[in-house]
Amino acid sequence: MAQALTYDARDSGVRQRVIEAYDGALDNVAGAGRKANDAIDEAPLIALAGGLALGAILAALLPRSESEARMLRPVGNKLSGSARAAVAAAKDAGTSRLAELGLTREKGAETLRSIFETAGGAAKSSAQSALGAGRTRE
Length: 138
Hints:
Blueprint: H1 2-42, H2 44-61, H3 66-100, H4 105-137
Helix pairs in contact: 1-2
């Protein structure tokens, strides 16, 4: 009979530790949820970006099925077209703004040509001066 009491006492201790571990895990999960909720409230755009990044990572890791490929192909094509249009619009807007400021491709090429010519002339002048100084010493 003494063995039965010893076993029950150990069993009760194990149960108690399991209950405590479970309660601790629940508290940790609840705390993590509160922290995540606070972070979302403080910086919703960062949370959105993080969620999108996590979704993209999961989507990249999971294999795509045939039906998903068929269903998503039109959406992908539409997104690609929209992205191309957005890039073209941004390029046109940037080019026109640079033109308004007088910064054109031709003007940039002319400026670079002038810089290289000036630098080349300076290098040639320096070389001639150094050569002249060397000859004078001789």
